[in-house]
């Protein structure tokens, strides 16, 4: 494996700027707030910061609707603030990767405004987006938007529909048009000249639409087809990424990660192949899809818990299949996912810290590039909002409207439970810095309610406690930097572990050493004998003593020999 690449040993910290730190009393996080907190990020020991979109945007979808790719949203600050953030981060040895959102733009983008202006052949911008005539007076096909409703919106003026896989304010760019690709590549090179360290590429697996835009398979009793399945890994996606690689990526010592919704193992081996002709790594979704509803009409909305056997089977499959062939991201959390300690761990006061550490260690000893989402290092929990009015996320609000109000597929009470498990806002509540008002995030009411548990769960308390989750993460990051086996070792599930309902146990081995990771996924006390060699050294533990064959609730231990 090409273990010489810097991003294979790196750990990424994801900052959601809107919720990280407010510096100017408007209740919204901003770039100067991030600058104020760089010391904190540095102390954790990570190598790279991934910034969610900070570009100019009407902010229909958390900034994933960009109206100017080369300007900063004034709510977040100015380009001068960004330049300062970048140079200060670099001076501290931190790299910054930006979010590249080019499957779609905002409907307010100049390109779309020009596209809208006329459907005449002399309008160069018409073909920047995907326009189609109605079919039998209806949408051109049955595709549903990820955010509810059809993926097509009708334009009275031209009598045509435009495609938007997400909100109607997020029209899909037409990647089959070489002018679109060149405009995007120019924009990327413009950011390169500023000295950024790479891009995380939003839904990059969706950019190439299937020829003829055929109907998608219907799942459940929806009238819409699943556009995600129909569009992911389209016919030209690898060709377009290779072109991007030639024209942009290969010129820079960057880290590139493709957010690849709907990626399979064999597709991942192409996106993130080790010849480096496309992207450095994929960011896949299978393990965070396991607890979706068993009724396909409800999609992700459920309060089901994924069991250890299915989660383990999935993680192990990816470890083994990409080994030596391609590179993966390791993550439990991001701005779209519920908090991991509430999802796969146990966020009760008794077990929150133990289970957060167990989950951290389990993931951080695997092969891949780990991502830590802001607040994960504190064991921040889901928001547990009680009413629909507390939510700000459009995916959540649209799902409520569609599934509760219009289609009446679920009761309000049930849907609110599902939101407590799965809403994206669970990850987006303000960062919990200290016990002062609004958790030290802002001195005025934040854009999204602060989780009241900030009195107990906050960065100040974590930094004051040598046993905190924060320092546990710090240790995991340090070990990754020190021990090559974490990057290059062979992954092996312990032979008797396949059916185990309680314990996840695996080894990583290279020519020098072996690591043995044993994690109890449950609140039960378990007896297992792993015949750990006498000379083995205990590298990591989340209890203060080691009882060898007794594995306590949410215990994790890592031995080296
Ligand atoms: O968030 C999801 C499930 O709740 C996913 O379906 C998500 O929409 C998908 O992974 C794509 O996410 C990315 O693109 C979206 C944006 O809303 C997300 O925040 C972003 O991470 C559209 O740009
Ligand atoms: Ca602000």
Automatic annotation (TrEMBL):
Belongs to the glycosyl hydrolase 13 family. SMART domains: Aamy. It holds the Pfam family Glyco_hydro_42C. Residues 14-428 form the Glycosyl hydrolase family 13 catalytic domain. PANTHER family: ALPHA-AMYLASE FAMILY MEMBER (PTHR10357), OLIGO-1,6-GLUCOSIDASE 1 (PTHR10357:SF184). The keyword DNA-binding does not apply. One of its GO terms (biological process) is oligosaccharide catabolic process. This is Alpha,alpha-phosphotrehalase. It comes from Leuconostoc pseudomesenteroides. GO terms for molecular function: alpha,alpha-phosphotrehalase activity; alpha-amylase activity; beta-galactosidase activity. Keywords: Glycosidase, Hydrolase. Transmembrane segments: none annotated. NCBIfam families: PRK10933.1 (NF008183). Its EC number is 3.2.1.93. It is an enzyme of class 3 (hydrolase).
